[in-house]
Amino acid sequence: MTQPHHPSDPHRLHPAGPQPVGPPPAGDAGYGAPAGYGAPGPQAHPAPGPHSGPGTGLDPWRPGELAAPPHAPVGLAMKRRNPVAVWLGLPLITLGIYGLVWYYRIHREMAEFDPRRQVPVAGPLLVLLFLGWTVVAPLVSFYNTGQRIADSQRSAGLPVTCSPVVGLLLCFVFGLQTLYYQTELNRVVDAYRAPEGTRIVLPG
After folding, report:
1. How do residues 26-73 score in pLDDT, each as one tens digit?
2. How many angstroms separate the Cα of 118 from the Cα of each of 104, 105, 113, 167, 199?
3. Residue 112: helix, strand or coil by DSSP?
4. Of 178, 32, 183, which Cα lies nearest the Cα of 92?
5. What's the rounded Cα separation, in Å, for the pair 67 and 58?
6. Residues near 59 by Cβ (< 8 Å), separated by ≥ 6?
7. Are 112 and 75 in contact (CB under 8 A)?
8. Measuring CA to CA, which residue among 7, 21, 8, 197 is closest to residue 108?
9. Residue range 148-169, pLDDT digits in tens
């Protein structure tokens, strides 16, 4: 009589049929492995590098900013203004105060637009405040402002259309130099179409 084989008998015959090869399937307790055997564990994700975001080289990155290639000159976008409001509307409402504020702000924006250029910020305003009685000093200041606007157009890669001579002559025509200069500054703003203060890439 054939004796039944003990489970530990090395001569025990295995059931016929193909035998599984490799590790048992995950969670199959029939292979003697605990549930969850072979289940993937938590995956480690590589830590982001210091400049792995879309704004490589620009920190912090804000929506709407343009990515800059390494070592590209970067500046801040200027504000677009209504030339007629700058020339006539707002100065009338503020009794002339806005004209001084505008003069200060455009110089600050030009300095931030292209940090490679040395643009005075408070100096031109101080000339109007303390040397306006000389007549000559404000005219020289307005002429230099036209030159700075032309430099900003060059920095943006635009054809230079701002003429400091025209700006100087318009000082004697109802103060139209402010309207003319703001119109020329708007050309630079329109070249980028970016909100004020947004980081922009300048031509190398």
Report:
1. 555 444 445 555 555 555 544 444 433 333 334 443 434 455 566 778
2. 15, 15, 11, 21, 19
3. helix
4. 178
5. 7
6. 51
7. yes
8. 197
9. 999 999 999 999 999 999 999 9
